[in-house]
Design goal:
The chain is of the alpha+beta class. The protein has helices spanning 7-21, 28-39, 74-86, 103-110, 113-133, 188-208, 224-231, 250-260, 301-309, 331-342, 353-363, and strands at 47-52, 58-62, 94-100, 140-141, 143-151, 157-166, 168-171, 177-179, 241-244, 271-275, 278-284, 294-299, 320-324, 374-380.
Length: 400
């Protein structure tokens, strides 16, 4: 069921004025996201007409924009990605580790997204792979899936990486499987300190190479000495690395991933109202405890859109990455080896290919009247209107 209020409603109502007010300050990527969200599932993108093969009910379906920042388009993308990952699950506990950047680094990342987010991925993955391979800890080669999130609950800029890691790995000689202790993966403090060192080393190298840009109150950081002085205190504080308890089994990992892999800054389900005051939405205040942390926030429409758009990723930037045993180059061979050592049954081969996907797409949205299969009867191009019009619903009056 379509929510009463959608992100697109905000952009359609206030986007034109926002573009004028922010002329010259919005990137091409942000402008494309705005246009995509506004046009998504409207006649502007074209669409098709379906008819139920049982009751002849007609339905117009407009095309999706398929932009990765559009909340309405991520459900189907997540399902496709999850189906591909389901066959890769191993029969053991999975752990969830989160690496978060300090606020001072997040400020630098704001104007250097591609560089700093890439460093975040590399530092977090290298930290896990290095500590896991250390014989003092696990002494194994592990695999992990890393997902970048850049937002807090109130749409503020809060870059962090979610890592999903199986509880064990291949021995360094590749001859046996080594499992971690039950309920414990790797020591958080050790992870935090290595992550801090690796990140700051890579950030310093990026500064030396002239790959970082600084503006406004941070302009002075372009000087090497000022930058080094600003980074010095960060070497003495604890960086937040959080290891959650293990999932309740591989299937629960899929449930979690379905919510996190393709999530955007805010979903329509959190929107409450759009009126003259602005946009009101639900958020979590993590400084409060218990049920008091669930609150409402109202932002002017322009501020809501500004916060949403700061989470638009650089063009071509991959926000889901695989490392170690799960790296794309050797993933199939590593998983086969792991299953053999775990004496696990290999997954069934994928069936149907493109034909199965097409059939699934047709059956994904059955007839709202009788649940029957909807058949494609007409396709119309961008900006055009369908020739076939849906018949009005029949209203039956019970006069008994």
């Amino acid at each position: 069921m379509r929510p009463a209020l959608d992100i697109a409603d905000v952009f359609r109502a206030h986007g034109p004025a926002f573009r004028l007010a922010q002329a010259g300050h919005l990137s091409l990527g942000q402008l494309k996201v705005m246009s995509a969200i506004e046009a998504c599932r409207t006649a502007e993108l074209g669409g098709h007409v379906e008819r139920c093969e049982d009751c002849a009910h007609l339905r117009i379906a407009y095309n999706s924009c398929r932009n990765r920042h559009c909340p309405k388009c991520q459900g189907a993308a997540a399902e496709r990605w999850l189906k591909a990952r389901e066959a890769e699950l191993l029969p053991l506990a999975y752990y969830h580790v989160v690496f978060t950047l300090p606020a001072e680094i997040a400020d630098i990342a704001f104007h250097n997204k591609a560089v700093v987010y890439d460093i975040l991925f590399k530092a977090a993955s290298e930290t896990l792979l290095t500590i896991a391979a250390d014989p003092k800890h696990l002494g194994a080669r592990i695999g992990l899936v890393a997902v970048l999130h850049t937002w807090g609950s109130a749409l503020t800029h809060h870059p962090h990486i979610h890592c999903i890691v199986p509880g064990g790995g291949l021995s360094l000689d590749g001859e046996r499987w080594i499992s971690c202790r039950k309920g414990f993966f790797l020591p958080v403090r050790v992870l935090s300190r290595l992550f801090r060192r690796l990140f700051l080393e890579r950030l310093k190298a990026a500064h030396t190479e002239g790959r970082l840009l600084f503006f406004g109150e941070h302009a002075g950081l372009a000087d090497g000495g000022v930058f080094a002085a600003a980074m010095a205190p960060l070497r003495r504080i604890e960086w937040v690395v959080y290891a959650k308890p293990p999932f309740a089994g591989p299937k629960s990992v899929l449930t979690y991933l379905s919510r996190y892999t393709h999530r955007v800054a805010i979903s329509a389900s959190r929107l409450v109202s759009l009126d003259e005051r602005g946009v009101t939405f639900r958020y979590k205040d993590y400084r409060a405890g218990g049920p008091d942390r669930r609150k409402l926030m109202t932002l002017a429409a322009s501020e809501f859109m500004r916060r949403f758009l700061i989470h638009v990723l650089p063009t071509g930037f991959h926000r889901i990455r695989h490392y170690g045993l799960f790296a794309n180059t050797a993933r199939a061979a590593n998983l086969a080896k792991a299953r053999a050592l775990l004496q696990a049954t290999p997954p069934p081969p994928a069936l149907g290919g493109a034909d199965e996907e097409e059939t699934a797409a047709k059956d994904a949205f059955p007839c709202p009247c009788c649940g029957g299969r909807m058949l494609l009867i007409e396709v119309f191009e961008r900006g055009a209107s369908p020739r076939t019009r849906p018949t009005p619903p029949i209203i039956r009056v019970d006069s008994s």
